[in-house]
Each structure stands twice: as structure tokens, then as C-alpha cells.
């Protein structure tokens, strides 16, 4: 059997079992000890009885012999005396549990107690205790008369005494053990309260929460664990920060030289009068731009995977969407972009940069794969649902499923990085938003639509 | 226009400088914020192009200081920092525009023109003066429906007048707008350009206030 997984249950079971076993062991030991003592006492009583009865028996036998002699003298007045055994038996009325026989040198019974059964008494072999299957016996001998006595006590008497003793020892345990188990369970439960609090603290925090755990009021056993965890969280935070700043720095380090090369290629194209040189400059420029696009996407992906994607304070997402749309408008996409936003702020605690990257990729995607010249509808609803829709032939279901895989392209157009929707998916997954694709657009017979539900600050903060 | 370019990358800086010069503006190019401060204190600039990560500091605090000290010169940030938060920081610090590297030089020219027009008070690039239809964004002029070709310097000079209609501009002011510290300027360069503009656009297009300077006329 496997040990239970709950520490509380495990402790309670182990303690309960240990206490029960100890109680039972203690009770058994006491019972055994008491039984031993009682055996001694009973033996003493047995011996005592023999030693009291034997002189009387000897005396009685002598009297009897004298009586016999007297009877030979024909003294009628002495004949009316009571029977010997009866007399002695009366003396020992209280020895209810004892029976005895007195035998002469030849082994003939001379006297016996009223209820003595002959079979219970093996022949005399020496002084001291004997034990048969049913009785405990004590044998004694009275010197010159050659009389022996055997006093017997039925074993059942002792057994029933022992049983009674065991019962009076055991009965309280029937109550004490369940009570101690309950007490143990309660104590364990109370002692483990800090553990439960820690568990609740851990399970309630979202993936984005890397704040240190409180070590207030923790038992000393848990303190090092929480401290260790806090150190781990610190390192994790530092690693995230490092990754983030690496991504930002790498972007910067790459962008500037690429920007210089592109600008020089453009100058070359503007300044040269040689048509073929201008053509080559154009080719260099195109290649550099592709290189730049790819490095930018890789950087965005690194950011989406490495950075914290949720903030502590929710912000209005509208200005960010506006900025991105304006960017596209400036490079000539203005006539195709139809932006709709509510008048009230749309709050979310999704990281601004992450939302920016997401919007940029969705719009870029829609412009690239949408039918040339046709509108791209960008809508942000007051409830925080961003939809970006473009006109295009319906996308097959299996292609829809494949779209967010890295380096997957819906068409064989060469100018896509194949990373845009993978970046969007990473942000949606790690940032906690909902992402859905639809093609054709619901209510139409063609087109492609992406719906992104922003993580709500109220729902996401707990 | 006279432009101060603050950029530490020599390859990119050179290309940007050449582009702005080709547009007819004058450019002073520095690679450090210290030099930028010195240069700003020595002359009047119509526009600053500011990189954000420079060897001796960050551009955003520099821009904030500039704005705190009361400077109203338009500033366009040219940077590799492409995050929305960086951009919001830059714009909040007082930048007029924010261009992420890499960028098209033509786009840069267009943005410089757009920022300059906004500062002149008329963001509309289409201006009509008498028989002249001027598109400042497209850098085209039609006189009575016929296209007139201007050189870059002529454009820059004419733009200076169009952006300050009715305002008197001294020869020294015009020289400063057209030439950087490093340019050698012929003593009669402005007169030569003005006379060429009059020949192409009409005698009355620029009026001369003897001994004071020039202003846009009413052809």
C-alpha cells in the first residue's frame, strides 16, 4: 500500500498507529505483570490454605484414631460427634474456590472437602506446586503421621479473574484510543496550518507573480524552504529581467548597424547615375530589410517568451493600438486600415509592449495576406476583444490549425517571416488572453479573422 | 532648415547627414551629448534628430532637460529602441516624432518636413501663393499649372520663406538655415539663390528690404 500523499494524514496515521500500539503494549505488559503477581497471590493463598487445613486434618485424624480406640472401649457418648471432614470443611467455608484431599501414607483418602473430585488430584509425589490441565495444586506433607494434603484451585477461576482484569484494563482503551486519535488529528491539523496557508498562497498566485512569499509566522522547518523558494524567485526574476534586457540590447545592437547599411544603400541608390549600380543597391537594401525583419521577429519571440507579460497596474490599451495603426498608416497603409475603438478606456494588465507586438503582428499579417487594396478591419470592443479581419479566400481548417506553428506560412509568399502568429500565440498563452481564428469570417463567406480577448485585470489579478 | 543630428553610429550618421543635405538643409552632426549641448548653445537649430543611446548618456533625460530649460526646437527621436513603452517615454519627454531604426531615408525626410510644417503653424503641405501651387511634402511647385524644378538649396531657401509668410529674414539667418558650421559659404550665396528663385517663380516672389533682409512677396 502506498503511503497517503497528504502530510497531515500521514502524520496523523503514523502518530495514531504508534500511540495505539504503545497503549496496547503498555496494557498487555501491565496485564501480564498483574497476572504474574496474582498468580503469586493465589499460590500463596493455596499454600496458606494447605498449611491451615493440614494441622487440622492431622489433629482430626488423631482424634478419629482415639475415637476408634475409644469405640473399642465402647464409649457410647463419644459416638455422636460430627463427621471430621464436615467439621474441617465448615472451618474453610470461605475457601470456596479450593478443594482438597488428605491422604494417608498408602494414598488412601482420609479426608476431603465436600466438593472435591478424586480425579482432580494426582497422587502425591512431593511437596510444592503442581499444575494439571484443569487445576493448580499445592501438596504438603505432615511429618510423622505420613499424611499428605493436596489443595486444588480450578484454573478456570484464575482465567476468569485474568479476563476480568484484562477487560477493566482494556475497556478504557476503547474510549481513550479513539479520543487520542482525534486529538492527534486535531493537533496535526492545527500544527500544519502554516503549511496550508503556504499552499494556498502558492496556488492562488498567477504564473506572472514572482513576488517573495511571506515567511511571517512560519514554523522553523518551513522557513528554509520558503527562504529557498524566495531566493529561487529572486533568481527567476533576475533571469527574466536579464533576458528582457538582453533581448532589448540585442535588438539595439543589431538595429543600428542594419539601419546604417540600409541608409547607405539608399544613399547609394539616390546618388548613383549608374542604373545597374542603383539596382544592386536596391537588392542590398531589400536583403537587409529581410534580415532586419527576421531578427526583429526573433527578438519579439524571445521577448514574448522571456518577459513578464502582465503588469501590476492595468493600463488603457487604446493608445497603444492607435500608435501601431498610425505606424502602418505612415508607411502607406492608411487607406486600408479601418480602426474602431470605444470612447471609454479599455483596461488590461497585459504588458503594453506585449500588446504592441501582438497588434503589430496581427495587422502586418492582415495587410500581407489580405487581398491587395481591400480593407483590414481592426476593432477593439469595450469589453477588451480585439478583432483583426481581412478579406481573402477562406483558409482551410487544417491550415488554420497550422498557422501558429513557427515558420509556417499560409501561402508561399516569400516576404513573411512565418513567425508573426507564433509570436501572437506565445503572447496570448503566456499573457493569459484568449486567441481564436476564424475563416471565413462569421457572417461572411470569405475572409480571415483573428479574435484576441485581452486578459482582464479584475479577473487576472487574483 | 538647420538640423542638429545626434548619432554615434558613423555609418548611419553619414547616410542621414547626406540625405538631409541632399534635401537642401544644413546639418551639424555630433556623436555625444556633451558636443550636442555645446553646439546648441552656439547656434539656432530648426530641428534636432536625437538617438537615444549615446556613449555619454541617454537621450530621454537629455530631451527632458532641453524641454525643462524652455527649448521649443522640434525633436525627432531616431532609435533602435522599438518598444511601445520606450516610444511613450520618448514622446512624453517632449519628442515630436519617434522613428525606429532601421528606417527609410525618404520617410525620414517626409517626417522632418511634417514636423517642420507643424511648427510653422500650417501642417497642410499644400500652399497656394498667387499663381504658385506648392506641395511642400512632395517638393513640387506648379506655376500656372506648369511644373517648376528647383535645386535642393533653392527648395530649402524657398521653404524658409513659405514657412514664415510675411516675416523678415536676415541674410545671416538664411545662411544659418542653409549652411552648417563646417560649410564654407560664399559671401553672396544667398543673393545668388534668391535671384534664381525670382527667375523661376516670378520677380515679386521675394521682396528685398534693403540692408535688412528678405521676405515672401505677393506675386
UniProtKB/TrEMBL annotation, chain A:
<keyword id="KW-0547">Nucleotide-binding</keyword>
<feature type="domain" description="HAMP">
    <location>
        <begin position="189"/>
        <end position="241"/>
    </location>
</feature>
<dbReference type="GO" id="GO:0004673">
    <property type="term" value="F:protein histidine kinase activity"/>
</dbReference>
<dbReference type="InterPro" id="IPR003661">
    <property type="entry name" value="HisK_dim/P_dom"/>
</dbReference>
<keyword id="KW-0812">Transmembrane</keyword>
<keyword id="KW-0808">Transferase</keyword>
<dbReference type="Pfam" id="PF02518">
    <property type="entry name" value="HATPase_c"/>
</dbReference>
<keyword id="KW-0902">Two-component regulatory system</keyword>
<feature type="region of interest" description="Disordered">
    <location>
        <begin position="64"/>
        <end position="84"/>
    </location>
</feature>
<dbReference type="InterPro" id="IPR003594">
    <property type="entry name" value="HATPase_dom"/>
</dbReference>
<dbReference type="InterPro" id="IPR013727">
    <property type="entry name" value="2CSK_N"/>
</dbReference>
<feature type="transmembrane region" description="Helical">
    <location>
        <begin position="165"/>
        <end position="188"/>
    </location>
</feature>
<dbReference type="InterPro" id="IPR036097">
    <property type="entry name" value="HisK_dim/P_sf"/>
</dbReference>
<keyword id="KW-0067">ATP-binding</keyword>
<protein>
    <recommendedName>
        <fullName>histidine kinase</fullName>
        <ecNumber>2.7.13.3</ecNumber>
    </recommendedName>
</protein>
<dbReference type="InterPro" id="IPR003660">
    <property type="entry name" value="HAMP_dom"/>
</dbReference>
<dbReference type="Pfam" id="PF00512">
    <property type="entry name" value="HisKA"/>
</dbReference>
<dbReference type="InterPro" id="IPR005467">
    <property type="entry name" value="His_kinase_dom"/>
</dbReference>
<keyword id="KW-0418">Kinase</keyword>
<keyword id="KW-0597">Phosphoprotein</keyword>
<dbReference type="InterPro" id="IPR036890">
    <property type="entry name" value="HATPase_C_sf"/>
</dbReference>
<feature type="domain" description="Histidine kinase">
    <location>
        <begin position="249"/>
        <end position="458"/>
    </location>
</feature>
UniProtKB/TrEMBL annotation, chain B:
<feature type="domain" description="Response regulatory">
    <location>
        <begin position="2"/>
        <end position="116"/>
    </location>
</feature>
<dbReference type="InterPro" id="IPR001867">
    <property type="entry name" value="OmpR/PhoB-type_DNA-bd"/>
</dbReference>
<keyword id="KW-0238">DNA-binding</keyword>
<dbReference type="InterPro" id="IPR001789">
    <property type="entry name" value="Sig_transdc_resp-reg_receiver"/>
</dbReference>
<dbReference type="InterPro" id="IPR011006">
    <property type="entry name" value="CheY-like_superfamily"/>
</dbReference>
<feature type="domain" description="OmpR/PhoB-type">
    <location>
        <begin position="124"/>
        <end position="218"/>
    </location>
</feature>
<dbReference type="Pfam" id="PF00486">
    <property type="entry name" value="Trans_reg_C"/>
</dbReference>
<keyword id="KW-0597">Phosphoprotein</keyword>
<protein>
    <submittedName>
        <fullName>Two-component system OmpR family response regulator</fullName>
    </submittedName>
</protein>
<dbReference type="InterPro" id="IPR036388">
    <property type="entry name" value="WH-like_DNA-bd_sf"/>
</dbReference>
<keyword id="KW-0805">Transcription regulation</keyword>
<feature type="DNA-binding region" description="OmpR/PhoB-type">
    <location>
        <begin position="124"/>
        <end position="218"/>
    </location>
</feature>
<feature type="modified residue" description="4-aspartylphosphate">
    <location>
        <position position="51"/>
    </location>
</feature>
<keyword id="KW-0804">Transcription</keyword>
<dbReference type="InterPro" id="IPR039420">
    <property type="entry name" value="WalR-like"/>
</dbReference>
<dbReference type="Pfam" id="PF00072">
    <property type="entry name" value="Response_reg"/>
</dbReference>
Amino acid at each position: 500500500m502506498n503511503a497517503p500523499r497528504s502530510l497531515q494524514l500521514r502524520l496523523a496515521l503514523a502518530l495514531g498507529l504508534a500511540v495505539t500500539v504503545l497503549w496496547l503494549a503498555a496494557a498487555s505488559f501491565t496485564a501480564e505483570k498483574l497476572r504474574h503477581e496474582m498468580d503469586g497471590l493465589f499460590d500463596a493463598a493455596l499454600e496458606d490454605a494447605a498449611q491451615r487445613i493440614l494441622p487440622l486434618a492431622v489433629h482430626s485424624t488423631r482424634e478419629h484414631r482415639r475415637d476408634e480406640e475409644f469405640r473399642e472401649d465402647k464409649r457410647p457418648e463419644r459416638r455422636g460427634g460430627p463427621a471430621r471432614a464436615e467439621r474441617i470443611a465448615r472451618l474453610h467455608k470461605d475457601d470456596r474456590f479450593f478443594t482438597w484431599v488428605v491422604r494417608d501414607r498408602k494414598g488412601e483418602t482420609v479426608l476431603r472437602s465436600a466438593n472435591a473430585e478424586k480425579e482432580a488430584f494426582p497422587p502425591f509425589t512431593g511437596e510444592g506446586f503442581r499444575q494439571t490441565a484443569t487445576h493448580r495444586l499445592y501438596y504438603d506433607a505432615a511429618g510423622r503421621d505420613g499424611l499428605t494434603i493436596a489443595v486444588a484451585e480450578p484454573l478456570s477461576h484464575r482465567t476468569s479473574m485474568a479476563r476480568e482484569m484484562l477487560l477493566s484494563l482494556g475497556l478504557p482503551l476503547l474510549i481513550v484510543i479513539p479520543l487520542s486519535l482525534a486529538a492527534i488529528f486535531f493537533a496535526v491539523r492545527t500544527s500544519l496550518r502554516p503549511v496550508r496557508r503556504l499552499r494556498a498562497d502558492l496556488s492562488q498566485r498567477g504564473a506572472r507573480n514572482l513576488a517573495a512569499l511571506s515567511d511571517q509566522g512560519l514554523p522553523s522547518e518551513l522557513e528554509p524552504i520558503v527562504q529557498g523558494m524566495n531566493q529561487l524567485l529572486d533568481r527567476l526574476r533576475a533571469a527574466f529581467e536579464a533576458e528582457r534586457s538582453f533581448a532589448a540590447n540585442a535588438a539595439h545592437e543589431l538595429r543600428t548597424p542594419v539601419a546604417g547599411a540600409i541608409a547607405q544603400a539608399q544613399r547609394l541608390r539616390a546618388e548613383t547615375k549608374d542604373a545597374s549600380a542603383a539596382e544592386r543597391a536596391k537588392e542590398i537594401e531589400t536583403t537587409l530589410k529581410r534580415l532586419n525583419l527576421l531578427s526583429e521577429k526573433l527578438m519579439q519571440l524571445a521577448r514574448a517568451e522571456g518577459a513578464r507579460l502582465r503588469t501590476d497596474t492595468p493600463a488603457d490599451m487604446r493608445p497603444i493600438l492607435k500608435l501601431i495603426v498610425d505606424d502602418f498608416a505612415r508607411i502607406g497603409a492608411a487607406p486600408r486600415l479601418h480602426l474602431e475603438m470605444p470612447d471609454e478606456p479599455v483596461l488590461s494588465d497585459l504588458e503594453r509592449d506585449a500588446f504592441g507586438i501582438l497588434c503589430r503582428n496581427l495587422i502586418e499579417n492582415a495587410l500581407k495576406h489580405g487581398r491587395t487594396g481591400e480593407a483590414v478591419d481592426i476593432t477593439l470592443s469595450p469589453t477588451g476583444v480585439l478583432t483583426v479581419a481581412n478579406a481573402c479566400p477562406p483558409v482551410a481548417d487544417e491550415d488554420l490549425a497550422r498557422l501558429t506553428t513557427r515558420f509556417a506560412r499560409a501561402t508561399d509568399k516569400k516576404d513573411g517571416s512565418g513567425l508573426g502568429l507564433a509570436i501572437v500565440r506565445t503572447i496570448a498563452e503566456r499573457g493569459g488572453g484568449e486567441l481564436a481564428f476564424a475563416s471565413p469570417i462569421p457572417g461572411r463567406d470569405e475572409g480571415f479573422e483573428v479574435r484576441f480577448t485581452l486578459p482582464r485585470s479584475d479577473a487576472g489579478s487574483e | 532648415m538647420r538640423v542638429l543630428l545626434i548619432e554615434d553610429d558613423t555609418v548611419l550618421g553619414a547616410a542621414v547627414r547626406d540625405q538631409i543635405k541632399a534635401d537642401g538643409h544644413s546639418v551639424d552632426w555630433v556623436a555625444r551629448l556633451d558636443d550636442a549641448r555645446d553646439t546648441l548653445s552656439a547656434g539656432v537649430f530648426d530641428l534636432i534628430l536625437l538617438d537615444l543611446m549615446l556613449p555619454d548618456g541617454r537621450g530621454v533625460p537629455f530631451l527632458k532637460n532641453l524641454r525643462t530649460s524652455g527649448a521649443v526646437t522640434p525633436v525627432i527621436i531616431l532609435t533602435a529602441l522599438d518598444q511601445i513603452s520606450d516610444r511613450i517615454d520618448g514622446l512624453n519627454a517632449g519628442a515630436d516624432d519617434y522613428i525606429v531604426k532601421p528606417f527609410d531615408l525618404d520617410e525620414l525626410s517626409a517626417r522632418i518636413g511634417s514636423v517642420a510644417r507643424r511648427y510653422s503653424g500650417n501642417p497642410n503641405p499644400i500652399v497656394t501663393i498667387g499663381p504658385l501651387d506648392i506641395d511642400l511634402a512632395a517638393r513640387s511647385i506648379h506655376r500656372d499649372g506648369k511644373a517648376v524644378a528647383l535645386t535642393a538649396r533653392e527648395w530649402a531657401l524657398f521653404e524658409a520663406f513659405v514657412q514664415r509668410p510675411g516675416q523678415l529674414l536676415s541674410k545671416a539667418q538664411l545662411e544659418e538655415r542653409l549652411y552648417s558650421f563646417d560649410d564654407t559659404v560664399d559671401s553672396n550665396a544667398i543673393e545668388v539663390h534668391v535671384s534664381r528663385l525670382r527667375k523661376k517663380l516670378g520677380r515679386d516672389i521675394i521682396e528685398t528690404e534693403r540692408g535688412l533682409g528678405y521676405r515672401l512677396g505677393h506675386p
